[in-house]
Amino acid sequence: MAVLLHRLGHKAYQQRKLVLGIWLFVLAALITCVSIFSGKLDDRFAVPGTESQRALDSLSKTLPEGSGAGAEIVFTAPKGHQVTEAPYAATIARTVTEAKKAPQVSEVVDPRASGAVSADRTTAIVQVQYRVQSAQVRASSVDAIEDAAKAAEKGGLKTSVGGSVYSSKGVHVGPSEIIGVAVALLVLVVTFGSLLAAGMALMPALIGVAVGLAGLLALAPAVSISSTAVTLALMLGLAVGIDYVLFILSRHRQQLARGTDPKESIALATGTAGSAVVFAGITVIIALAALSVIGIPFLTTMGLGAAGAVLIAVLAAITLVPAVAGFAGSRLTPKPGSRAARRAADAEGSIGRTTMGTRWTKWVIAKPLLTVLAAAGTLLTLALPATEMRLALPDNGSAPHTSSERKAYDTISDTFGPGFNGPLLVLAETKNGTASASAQAGAQVAQKLRTLKNVKAVLPPQPTSDPGQSVITVLPASGPDSVRTGRLVRDIRKAAPDIRESTGASVALTGTTAVNIDVSNRLSDSLLPFVTIVVGLSLLLLMIVFRSLVIPVKAAIGFLLSVGASLGLVVAVFQWGWLADTLDVPHSGPVVSFLPIILIGVLFGLAMDYEVFLVSGMREEWAHTRRARQSVIDGARHSVRVVTAAALIMFTVFAGFFPLDDPLIKPIAFALAVGVAVDAFAVRMTLVPAVLALAGRGAWWLPAWLNRILPDLDIEGTSLQKTPATDQKEPQPVS
């Protein structure tokens, strides 16, 4: 791999105008495709093969308005008044008339017809039904409903609009993300000691992100892509793109400071640091692509979209960076006597000054057992809340307090009960298919459902276009994300055989709440197998790279500690509500159901990234000196600074997405930012050197028979020392 990348670096340097031109042409072509063939993003949650999805698909044909999106206009009368008073009733009637004129609306139900008037008559709900899913509802339609609601306020009523038409708000690029990139640029300036080098590090990363995003959006007309998938791709593309460029460019400048020819230097950097970048990128891509095996389309597009963004970031790092370095030439060389030049000398060990990485590593391994116990104990303590983690998909109850949908959600919950926000739909079907038999069986089914625990109300059966079908709405006594509601779903499905035997009707549970519960259950069931695959993959890959048994086991345990600590903090903040007001978290409740799997997939690749960069230098020192303890210190001399900068960049990029109000993206951004910080500083730069110091010479042991059968990936580029380099002024040592 190293030799191939070395040649690629040479070619990209020589053909820099062509390489840059190809990237810019591809970007322009993709942007043109997006502008001409723009498609809508699709935020539907579907679970193929489940009872709830089959029933929902059936209803989409026989009762489209029952399976489509819905909006709710909530009216609240002034204090001391009731919505049934003549002026207010007339205002509500006018609103119903105006709402019927909104595009795509199939039906608007007056609260007097549906009975959606509170017992104290202070609140009423107008139900708005669509024949399409929320992803297909146009913004103009929602705007029309909101305008109709605002007009009602002139009549003295307080209004808010909610419902399933409000979902993820799509791609977000705002001030917080821009600040995150600005902080990343500042970190690059401090790391390189050069504004030119920092700018040239940022440019390939941004071009790669632009190509990745444009490519993903260009697929929207042909492939179902969610807005969350686009935002995650943007988040990951920025973070890994900047980091990968940093790794290669820092090695390049270190070699330039030694006097290496610029062309040969960037080729060597691409062959050595670029090998680690490719290795780390492949691990992230594999872990993210593995999300597709779970069988949830929404999660598949998220995984594949993010994997595509990481792939583009890797390609940009190993092609665009050498090309950009070619334009800069020797201008990237640190000036003699500058801080960057001293750092290069420090990393090479040619001067006696002790670096920050050396001081930290010496302190960590002074009492390695104490360090291991303290670090592992702290991480295990942080992970404890994860044992009580509950998973669910967010709804309008997770929206900001000031939003219309959150106000509507809270008003409905307080006035009608929390279950009104998460009704369950029971599809009853009879064999003989006559309308009268279906109606009779539906009534009997409804009566049976009323006897179940945690059922607040069961509405009369509603016929569909199929004479043998009827739909029964069940209102739970608990909210849609409550454990009790999940138990009710199980109880209804458990009672289905008895209901069929006594009424002659087969029943299937569906609706948004049931689908969301099925999504969360499938994700929960997939979590352990997914972790097993990822940990097993890390053991195999690191064993191949470092020819060791101790290092893979240590890396896997450290990875699990990082994931556990991150999930523990997510539970404490988002589920328990600790520091929720301080961090502006609008709602405490179950954790987003696909967050743990996304976190595991992303953090796995990043952990392997840091592991390779830190330990490869230590292994190289061990190969040269055979001094176990000193190899740990000398190997960390340069790596600690680069990994620190990389972790800070990733942390700020992920944290830049945390202020968003999106209930899906906010906890993911928090989990990734915390996970990167914990893994880089507590695990890789603290636990790793301490464990290696404890293991001593045993850290680098691998049975001879296993060493013979494992392939050699040559991540560290040792083969380059044996391969004559073209256009090299004189042989240069590889650090």
UniProtKB/TrEMBL annotation:
InterPro entries: MMPL_dom, Mycobact_MmpL, SSD. Residues 195-327 form the SSD domain. It is a multi-pass membrane protein. Keywords: Cell membrane, Membrane, Transmembrane, Transmembrane helix. The keyword Protease does not apply. It is found in: Cell membrane. The chain crosses the membrane at residues 20-38, 178-198, 205-223, 229-249, 270-298, 304-329, 363-384, 527-546, 558-579, 591-618, 639-658, 664-683. It comes from the Bacteria. SUPFAM superfamilies: Multidrug efflux transporter AcrB transmembrane domain (SSF82866). PANTHER family: MEMBRANE PROTEIN MJ1562-RELATED (PTHR33406), MEMBRANE PROTEIN YDFJ (PTHR33406:SF13). This is MMPL family transporter. It comes from Streptomyces plumbiresistens.
